[in-house]
Amino acid sequence: MKRPIFYILVGLVLTSVLFTSCEEKKHKGGRTDTPTSGVMAFASDESFSPIIEEEREMFQDMYPEAKLKPIYTNEYDEVDMLMRGKIFLAITSRDFTPKQLKYLQDNNFQPTAIKLAYDALALIVNKNNNDTCISVKDVKRILSGEVTDWSQIYPGSHRGKIKIVFDNPKSSTVKFCEDSILGGHGISNVNASAVKTSQGVIDFVEKTPNAIGVIGSNWLNDKRDTTNCTFKKNIHVMSVSKMDKATEMNSWKPYQAYIFNGRYPFIRTIYALINDPINGLPWSFAHFIQGPKGQLIIFRSSLLPYSADVQMREIEVKTE
């Protein structure tokens, strides 16, 4: 029997980011935080929370006088908070729009968008469902409502209606499906619904045989596997093909290596949107994630770091 071949990424080379020190002083608006001290809130799309929590814990270990308070919410609300000056850092899956940039610049701000990593949008099904290869074309047909039953994609299937579940109706996963898969059109499948969190998506799929969950891939990594070739055991992760007919040979799972070489089709960029007029704690945390230690955390989490030089190596997995 031919042994399956996986690919792992090795040789992470990173560019350092230097923080400038500054004396603690009170700025306009009452802020007293510095790049390495103080208390400050920031927001992140909830789908990125596992990796952002690791980044936050490492940053606070390095700078014990700094305390970051995360707000894990949906992409729409976090960007709205940033634009209204309620926060100064938002972790999102998109850049500022031209209109947002102009508004901030017209009000004498200097907004900055930093690319942090590449993430994949994963499709998950119940662990008893072995129909795990699907084409981009069929994903689009499901989201648009053209396809509503499993038998329309997998003839002979008796799973019935396809239940699609998202984390939040205003999240980056929904936005990606509408913009990047449906070409700007809304999701119109009558069996689509949303729970409150990414963990809720996993829980729903785990107990629903006919469900497809849409989730950020950083929720699926089995941290016991340092090669990033293992997903959680309580669900199945679907392989997705760019070809019209999906087969095991032309479909790919959202492994780190397939994000790197572009074989997996649903890839998105993670940004830090900064509007910090004093370059304080939010500015410092964003640049920490962009820097060597922050990018190494991303590398180990199964996502693809943005500021890194990586190499791909084949490995064989022995089977009995």
Please sum up the structure shown:
This protein has helices at residues 49-62, 75-83, 98-106, 136-144, 172-181, 198-207, 256-260, 281-290, 292-300, and strands spanning 5-13, 38-45, 66-73, 89-92, 112-126, 133-135, 163-166, 192-194, 211-216, 235-237, 239-241, 251-252, 267-274, 304-305, 309-316. It is α/β, with parallel strands linked by helices.
List keywords for this structure.
single chain; 320 residues; alpha/beta; 10-stranded mixed sheet; 3-stranded mixed sheet; 27% helix; 27% strand
Topology:
Layout: E1 5-13, E2 38-45, H1 49-62, E3 66-73, H2 75-83, E4 89-92, H3 98-106, E5 112-126, E6 133-135, H4 136-144, E7 163-166, H5 172-181, E8 192-194, H6 198-207, E9 211-216, E10 235-237, E11 239-241, E12 251-252, H7 256-260, E13 267-274, H8 281-290, H9 292-300, E14 304-305, E15 309-316
Parallel strand pairs: 2-3, 2-4, 6-11, 7-8, 7-9
Antiparallel strand pairs: 1-15, 4-13, 5-9, 5-10, 5-13, 5-14, 11-12
Mean pLDDT: 87
List unreliable stretches of 5+ residues.
20-24, 224-230
SS elements, strand count: 15
Biggest sheet descriptor? 10 strands, mixed
Share of helix, binned: 25-40%
Rg over CA atoms: 21 Å
SSE pattern, N- to C-terminal: EEHEHEHEEHEHEHEEEEHEHHEE
Report the end-to-end length measured between terminal Cα atoms. Answer: 9 Å
Strand content: 25-35%
- Estimated structural class: alpha/beta
Instruction: Enumerate how many helices there are, as a single number.
Output: 9
Model description:
- By secondary structure, the chain is α/β, with parallel strands linked by helices.
- It has helices at 49-62, 75-83, 98-106, 136-144, 172-181, 198-207, 256-260, 281-290, 292-300, and strands at residues 5-13, 38-45, 66-73, 89-92, 112-126, 133-135, 163-166, 192-194, 211-216, 235-237, 239-241, 251-252, 267-274, 304-305, 309-316.
- The protein has nine helices and 15 strands.
- The strands form three sheets. Strands 2, 3, 4, 5, 7, 8, 9, 10, 13 and 14 form a ten-stranded mixed β-sheet that branches. Strands 6-11-12 form a three-stranded mixed β-sheet. Strands 1-15 form a two-stranded antiparallel ribbon.
- The longest helix is centred in the first third of the chain and has 14 residues, at 49-62.
